[in-house]
Input
Amino acid sequence: MKQGEVIGGFTLGPVVHRGGMAVLREVTHPDIPGPLLMKSPLLAEGEDPAAIVSFEMEQMILPRLSGPHVPRCHGFGHEPTPWLVMERIDGGSLLPLLKRLPRAPEEVAAIAASAADALDSLHRQGVVHLDVKPSNILRRGGEGAVVMIDFGLSRAALLPDLMEEEFRLPYGTAPYMAPEQVMGVRGDPASDLFALGVLMYFFVTGRRPFGDPQRLVELKRRLWWDPPPPRAIEPDCPPWLQEVILRCLEPDPGKRPPSAAQLAFELRNPGTIQLTRRAEKLKRDKWTARLQRRFNPDFQPQLRRKAAALPQRDAPIVVIAIDLEDGNPRMAGALRDTLARLLSMRPDARVACVNVLRTNVLRPDTTLDAEGRNKHVQRLMELRHWSAPLGLPEHRLTHHVLEAVSAGGAILDYARQNLVDHIILGAKAGGLTQRVLGSVPAEVARDAPCSVTLVRLREF
Output
């Protein structure tokens, strides 16, 4: 992508920001008043495939959001590379405020109340942000409505969760991740309130409550290891604000504020806050209390909330495994026909089109092909072309490129982790190698936790 190039009717301008997972460019369009930004995932050699998957999540979520607390989406596409165009918010983010910490308690409360308004708007639209932090909170005109950006890690109740389906490790910004999010529970609005509590603590004291952990074992410590009370670090923090902050930082989501709207109200009306022992704490809990929480099997708030946090699934999931290297149009047609017959019986089913990008065991893998294109993105585009004739709406059709050494193992792992109901894949013609070593279809049919349909071409 070069300056002056036209993609989807938008003319590319200069790069304005290059983050850890995506690039932002200025763009213009003759029919859309600016300023506009185009976002695209990083596709250079060695980039994390999670950057592509999270970008797909944002492509699904942002166009469905509305209101003053999100940037307006003006278009998106997948070729020649994935892209998303949105309005450019004229105000800056909260990130520059980190240069002058701590901030006055009244200022922190006002900022957090405005951020809670934005989160309330998202939650009412069925979206949990899951990456609340200063750089993702903007203000229109500097002091206007708060705008939340970057929905690549978000969870939408009515959309498939690609991040959860394809990756086992939790994704987020380590200092701000809620305990249940660390444990793999996505979709609870209380997770955003925890992150906002971390932000308030940081702004009031100048310290992050849980530091900046780099390993999973360090992340899990916040389940039972309480931070020093804000007033122990910054005596000017009023008791009511400490009450609010520590309630947001409760490890059990059920003990946090009941909603973002309620949190915003309390931050604007301190006199309505009922103070508890949290407000007067000046020391952390005793080490014996922390130790008891650490080894108490009942102290698993994230597990108790898991069933309630995630939307219940009634519609079946059908996986169709596509061998993009086969190139046989007859097999492609036979697979589509088989899937169409199944969907005619279950019109509510969701389809996951899956391809496995094999990785090497002994030598380093490259993420780019001979022409310099990202292999993962190329496979995704090929899957989209394959599935286009199905005519399914976006919320019923997802595309997944699984990177693994074993194709059969990757398909089976996906099926087990996501409670798949049916797998469809093409049968291979039996050669000597397959008779001796076995085949991917045979492995899947033998070990799958669900029904499997093998599609075999009739020999003429």
